[in-house]
Amino acid sequence: MGLDLSTGDYQIFRTAFRKFLQSEIIPSYEQWEKEGLVPREVWAKAGDNGFLCPWLAEEYGGAGAGFEYSAIITDELARAGTHLLFPLHSDIVVPYIATYGTPEQKHKWLPGCASGQIIAAVAMTEPDTGSDLSAIRTTAARDGDYYVLNGTKTFISCGLHADLVVVACKTDPRAEPPHKGISLLVVERGTPGFARGSQLDKMGLRSQDTAELVFEDCRVPAENLLGQENRGFACLMEKLQQERLVCAIMGQGLAERMIGYTVDYCRGRSVFGQPVSAFQHNTFKLVEMATEVELGRVFLDGLLEKHLTGRRVVREVSMAKWWITEMANRVAYHCLQLHGGYGYSEEYPICRDYRDVRIFNIFAGTTEVMKSIIAKEMGL
């Protein structure tokens, strides 16, 4: 029997997190969307309840649970249409520190990450460099006990709130091939030369604080090097499997949310004297979407189980990341169409979900990049 995250302790945890969503997130989410920012105290409340980095060892303030508990949190956030950056912090950024950090770095930073007192971000993308990480221009030159960091990063989620930023930079700009000169530096809030640009005005995910980060002669202590110098690219590649799996979980949860309320809407809304769902074309469209959503869930659950065993499933995760997020976008398109004019109104959830889902097949590697990775894995 496969992994079932709706039974036993998993269900108890899921129920607890749903209650947290209902009491602490959902009532204020619309206001945060308008303001473009989630208050920091929400992170502290999540940490107090054990909803940040649940997989982290107890000695660092975690619960010592598995990644499957993080998967439940990501799934429930998406199902509620509340795209807080807990998964980015807990399951994409903090694992870099937990895996590659020195004992001193772990004890310094991880407890705060688990409690919500420290919010973490990762800075890879630059104004002229997206998916091609080997082409980044941000440099870090060693100067005694410091690295002098110069460059600009953009589209950085948690860019305004972040207390720690894992920055991908070139410590050997002349390396061949170029990716062999990349290192990871942890830049802390308040470091001289570290500045934040204005918040980016985005199409969707508007409550996420996304900003440009600027490093100008930023002196970062050499002890903040994460992992080995010039080995940063390998670290990034190793962690991308989980990052893209998180994206697939988000897409799947949102697709299930959209088809759920759209079926209810089509049953209750009447045109020409009968429910919208009674027209054969609409019936077939709902059935087609429900089938695709179900296929996504089965694929994702099996893939999650493989990931939890530590298997390398880069090919399958890349397939899930592109197919599930593209499927979620198809579902959004047709669900809005079935809502008619009401779908274009902010009164109905499909309006915001339609905007939010569009980024899912862009961030963490575009659909086209995923297909290129799969082709490479297939030996094509």
Describe the structure.
With 380 residues, this protein is of the alpha+beta class. It has three domains: 8-118, Orthogonal Bundle (Butyryl-Coa Dehydrogenase, subunit A, domain 1), CATH 1.10.540.10; 121-229, Butyryl-CoA Dehydrogenase, subunit A, domain 2; 234-377, Butyryl-CoA Dehydrogenase, subunit A, domain 3. Helix content is 50%, strand content 16%. It has helices at 8-35, 40-48, 67-79, 86-100, 103-115, 232-268, 280-308, 314-339, 349-357, 367-377, and strands spanning 120-123, 139-143, 146-157, 164-170, 182-188, 194-199, 210-221, 225-226, 270-271, 274-275. The strands form three sheets. A four-stranded mixed beta sheet has the order 1-4-5-8, covered by helices on one side. The chain is globular and about 80 Å long.
In the CATH scheme, the class of the largest domain would be: Mainly Alpha
Sequence of secondary-structure elements:
HHHHHEEEEEEEEHEEHHHH
Q: Could you give the distance between the termini?
A: 34 Å
Low-confidence stretches: none
